[in-house]
Design goal:
CATH architecture of one domain: 3-Layer(aba) Sandwich
Number of strands: 27
Radius of gyration: 23 Å
Strand content: 25-35%
Structural class: alpha/beta
Distance between the termini: 42 Å
Largest sheet: 9 strands, mixed
CATH class of one domain: Alpha Beta
Helix content: 25-40%
Amino acid sequence: MYIWLRSDNIVSNYSTFFKQVQKTPDEIFLYHGVKTYTYREVFDASLRLANYLYHLGIKKDTRVVVMLPNIPEMIYTWLALSRLEAMMIPVNIHYKSLALRYIIDDSSASAVIYEAECENDVISATNILNSCEIFVGVGPCTYEKSAGFDRFREKPLFGGPYRPDDDDTAVMFYSGAATGPAKYAKYSNALINRNTNDFLHATMYRAREVIYSQYPLTHFLAYVAVMNAALNAGCAIAIGDSPDPEKFGAMLQATQASYLLIEPGFFPEMNHLDKGVLPDSLRIVLTGGGRLKSNIQQEFTMKHGIPVFKAYGMVEAGPLLSVNTNTDKPYSIGIPLGNVSLSVMKGNEAVADNIIGEICLMANMLTADLQELLKKDIQKGWYHTGDLGYLDLDGYLYFIDRKAYIIHVRGFEVYPEQVEAALIKHPQVQDVVVVGVALDENLESIHAHIIPKGGKRPEENALTEFLQNELPRYQIPDKYIFTNHFPKSATGKVVRQALK
């Protein structure tokens, strides 16, 4: 979203922008830990950074990989690149050198802005690439090619030309490659602006309230639902990624946040918090981008009395496609946002309500380059996403599983989610992931990987007996494997292929 248009190209006087969002320059825009930053401080820092980056060689259409955690420098970078009309390519800080090299090479990025802890991976990723020439490091970086990020503070405010177009690319997202090669999509100013406004029409953000993001700001969900949405709605942003739930709860109290965007994998930690630790101001918790087991969601809501809503999206389209705001349907991923055409199909035919099928989108939602790249998944004008779900009678969408995860057992299709939902009810099961292991070309065996509760393994016969009251025989696992952790990707999703 090209926010600088709203300031009427004014470099140091933001009167037009603040009039539109009904803010004053000295109101708080950003919280980080115990520190607060006003709109004036954030915008001035962003314009100084824009000047610094411009003289380093980052100009209009320069492709810039941004590998930063949830820190103020991430917000400054986002705004500075927007002001320069450069193309931002957000990358999770946990990506290792091979994944990072692929993204830099594939995107033809010529600049990387990174945090010091990522430096070794940045160096390793770029040492055989010729395209990347500009390196900017946040923190104690030692790479001889890297310019120190903090040097922007001594620069004057940037006042260069600003002539953005609706079709100019604002951001380029890459998928986490959990189910195959990484996908990418470029989003124009107009598309991001439209998606942000569609999201705001579906949610209940109110001006002068605080949105707290534990979710990485480099993820498309936070990019739209936190940074762009907060600026557009006149909300303040609070950021942090502390792994300590007690500290996290204290930061929520300090900011008096109304909305919380949180990763699915962080909910079990939040469930360990005492009742009353979360502030009374917190009205809505939003999650997405991964699977949140219904028992964990239910425990959170019952303990803390706060509804959990889910958003659904993907790199290829949207990027946000639906969001739920209905407390009567807590496990739904909502109804499609405006400008989203969605259907549930088997083959090329739409299925009836409450029947599981493949979630499909109108292919024209994909950019032109993606329509060519993904043409094998486009049939009769519909893009087949590979996600399985169903629509209820009220038009609310429910996610079931990835199509690639279906297990074929004696002519039946077994959805791992259904088996996992049954096993998690066992009192000695803390977490479970179910996968299919091939026996031959047409037959698979069901394997359940289990993290025991309290470290005490349940008897396998007892698990099977328990499941006989929960599932049909063909859905009961053939083998139980006990472990103390699951392999996860850089984005926190379980890597199921590693369990096969």
